Amino acid sequence: MIFPLFLLAFAPTAQAANINLQPKGNESACFQGVYSAEHRRNNPKQEFSELTILVENIVAPPDSEVASYISAKLVGAKNGTLYGNAATCEYKANGSVFCFIECDGGSFSLRRGDRGVEFAVTPDYYFPFFRKGADPDQPHTDDTVSFSGKDPANSVYKLLPAKANACKVRWSQYKEVPNFGC
Fold first, then answer.
1. Which of 18, 45, 46, 115 is deepest in the core (most CB within 10 A)?
2. How far is CA 93 from its chain centroid?
3. Which H or E run includes 167?
4. CA atoms within 13 A on the CB side of 157
5. Beta bridge partners of residue 120, listed in sequence order
6. Cα–Cα distance between 10 and 161 in angstroms, integer?
7. In Å, how far from its chain's centre is CA 148?
8. Which residues pair with 33 in a beta bridge?
């Protein structure tokens, strides 16, 4: 498992036992991890120096043909380049959040950990991140960073709660997911 050192800029906003992974109504939840150079040297399989996850309830207006849903927007930073993805999520009875991409596109869970939140790729599966500005019609080897659920050193990341606006700002810097899927 990965045990990151967090920068003070992302100080926790709640005790681990009180972390709400399942925001209600129009609320959002934000989780961030910033990993030091020393931590990354000690954990060479960890590819991101930062990981940000925004969980949002997307509430459809009354009389709308669009259904309400839960969304996760993820942004990672690697050597100054942003990678991201988005997923649809389900709230679980145990308080965790399970997120997935349609068409066999990967999955992960968010769960309370000892000192914050754990992002955990589904065992025996994966979760991809796409480089900002990647062109699905002309893919390159550096367009994707994929976390494997088969690799314990690359499948669990420690995060801390942060203000929702911090995640919204980070997502706005990434903006959208290239259409590499079905």
1. 46
2. 20
3. helix 164-174
4. 31
5. 109, 156
6. 8
7. 14
8. 51
Residue whose token pair is 């259904």: 67
Q: What is the pLDDT of residues 83-115, one digit of tens each?
A: 999 999 999 999 899 999 887 778 999 999 888
Cβ of 113: how many Cβ atoms within 10 Å?
A: 18
d(C-alpha 51, C-alpha 147), whole Å: 12
pLDDT score of 176 more than 70:
no
SS3 of residue 71 by DSSP = strand
C-alpha 7/C-alpha 182 separation (Å) is 38
Query: Phi and psi at residue 157, in whole multiples of 5°?
Result: -130, 135
Per-residue pLDDT tens digits for 15-47: 555 788 888 878 899 999 999 989 989 988 888
> In sequence order, what DSSP letters do the residues of 91-116 get, joined into one string?
E-TTS-EEEE-TTT--EEEEEE-SSS
Reference 116, options 160, 51, 164, 52; nearest CA is 160
- Model-wide pTM > 0.90: no
Amino acid at 81: T
Query: How far, in Å, CA of 13 to CA of 10, rounded?
Result: 9
105/107 Cα distance (integer angstroms): 7
